[in-house]
Amino acid sequence: MKSNKSLGTLWEYQFFTKALELGHGLYIPAGDNLPVDCILSSEGSLKRVQVKGTTKNQEDSKGFGRYKIIAGTGHSSKKPIDCREVDILAVYLKNADTWYIIPCKALDGKVSLWFYPDNPESTAKFEKYREAWDLI
Q1: How distant, in Å, are the alpha carbons of 30, 48, 60, 63, 93 from that of 101?
Q2: What tens digit of pLDDT does each residue of 72-85 get?
Q3: Do residues 51 and 38 lie in contact, with contact meaning Cβ atoms separated by under 8 Å?
Q4: From the DSSP assignment, how many helices (H) and strands (E) are in the chain?
Q5: Does the pLDDT of residue 128 top 90, yes or no?
Q6: What domains sit in the chain, N to C, each tagged with a CATH number?
Q7: CA torsion sign, 86 to 13 to 10 to 132?
Q8: Rounded Cα distance, 24 and 21, in Å
Q9: What is the rounded CA–CA span in Å between residue 90 and residue 104?
Q10: Nearest CA-CA partner of 27 in 37, 18, 17, 35
Q11: Residue 89: CA atoms inside 13 Å, Cβ hemisphere, count?
Q12: Is 66 left (phi over 0), alpha (psi -120 to 50) or beta?
C-alpha cells in the first residue's frame, strides 16, 4: 500500500498530465510546503491549483459510492484553504476515475467535502464541477 505522500504525488502528476494534454502551460513550484501544487497558464490567465485525491469510498444510503476529501491545510488541525493563495481545488477520485475542478470560493471555507460520482441522480453541491476543465 502506498503512503499518503506517495498517493498525493501520484494525483498531482496525473493532474499535470491531464492539464498538459488539454494544452495548458504548467509551472510546478519547488518544495512541498507551498499552498499550491502547480500554476496553470491558459489564454493569458494564471490559476493556482491545489490537488487532492482519494482511493477510499463508502456506500451512501442508496448503495452508491461516496467519497470524502479533507481540503484543508496544516498537519494536525486542518484549516480551510486560503482563497487568497489558491484559485482552484482539483479533486481526483481514483475508484471513479473522476476529476472535480472546483473554484476555491465555492468551498465556502469547508474542510470536509463529499462527492457522489457513482450516483447519476446526485444533486450534491460539487457535482456541477465534475470534469469542469473549462474553469481553468
Answers
A1: 23, 12, 22, 25, 12
A2: 876 666 789 999 99
A3: yes
A4: 1, 10
A5: yes
A6: 4-135 (3.40.1350.10)
A7: positive
A8: 8
A9: 10
A10: 37
A11: 28
A12: beta
